[in-house]
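S1.2 Input.
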Amino acid sequence: METLELTLFLLLAVAATGAFARWVPVPAPLLLVGAGIVLSFLPFLSDLHIEPAIFFALFIPPLLFADGWLMPKRDFMGVLRPVLMLAFGLVFLTVVAIGYLIHWLIPSLPLAAAFALGAIVSPTDAVATAATTERLPVPSAVTNILNGESLINDASGLVAFKFAAAAAATGAFSFVEAAQEFILLAGGGFVAGLAVAFLIGALRVRLRRISVDAPTIQTILSLLTPYAAYLAAESLHTSGILAVVAAGLYAGSHDSRHISLATRRHANEVWTMLLYAFNGLVFLLLGVELPAVIHRMAGTPWQELTLYAVILWAALNLVRLAWVYPGANLRPLLFEKVRKREGFPNPREVFIVGWAGLRGSVTMAAALSIPLVTAAGAPFPGRDLLIFLAASTILLTLIVNGLTLPLFIRFLGVHGDGAAEREERAARIALAHAGCSTLREAMSRLKRAEEVALAQRLVESYERLLNRLSANAARRADLDALAESERRLILAALRSERAELLEMRDAGIINDETMRAIEVEIDDAESSLSPSAARAHG
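S1.3 Output.
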């Protein structure tokens, strides 16, 4: 099958599996892997091959860029110390511990290749972690730590993987030289990423000032940013991975201040679709690749492969739990001021942090990008085994850790602190006060009675919102129910407008161009009545 047809078929498979996932209580990544396994038996997919270097360069930059862009900066800084301990200290421990364990368990696998496996399975997955914890009643600090860790350890794990894979391919490795090279690569890559993001951000601002603010153009520049940062850093022989993360961090801060509403909405939709497709393709390709990998290891008994996978999964959990408990309690033990001010962390919440180490798309992307051959032209040692173990780790963490996490939360009595809801309500109250004050100031300058009446109605709308947000829980529930009824009535009216518009187009009363112009207005009005918008303006 030609490349174009194959790409379209895989994207269709991702969309179909995603639609099916809405009807069954199974995580979408597991369904995508299963779909990939089924599709692997199709003749045109049985010999599917993607060049590892191209796979890495295609999938990793946008995934890491989005991680950096979406990172909540204030929340991240609030949990910076535990996040860095997990993202760097735990990653290093995982690489070393898993590397030596797998090399001891499978002596035929070179130590450098075993280290590469440790690096591949060290990053937790931001998408899987967020999807698992966003609806669970966990304290905000736990959520912030897990999200922050998964955003940062992608970079640290992938950098470690690059070093280990290079060592396995060349047969030469030195911890001292690797540490020195890491500092140079990391620093150079971070600076290169910031420079690229700064230049592209300045270009986008300049284009807006000269009235070239088309959302399509701005969004294309946004999509090119991670690839530009990655390629620029790689051409300078620095870390393209950290360059992409740095570019994402800068762009996330820059775009909120300098990008127009239309561009922001358009870019969010495009990026949401792209990330959905890329994450889905990674898991789907994992399923497509897995049967061929297992077939090539036909000489190894399946019981032995299963044992390796279970031992690796268990070791990852043990290493993580052995790290998080001392790491969480070290500062209170060493410093009396910290102990008096913060106390010791709740051991139940620490366990949740330790158990929530889910792996996902970055681990799979790294595994599939393992070189096919070494520098000498020989097959990369244990490549199929490494891919199998990485895939097994993803599946086991999603199935065992992911599905049992809600059970542990209920069993341990861990509860949410409501901090996010309180902060959101306080922000909405402050915004409503600001809008109301501006309207009252403007009313004193209005001359026409109709304008004053209009401003008064807008002020009353803000006052109703303030009354609803400031009410106690029982009263707020009643007001929310009333606002929801109003929302449903307006939506019903908008749907009638849309139906009438389509009938007029079908009857030839208006043409398609007129219909689309009015349809955009109805779309905007309807989108403003989404549940989140209704909470803000109801």
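S1.4 Remarks. Confidence is low (pLDDT under 50) at residues 533-538.
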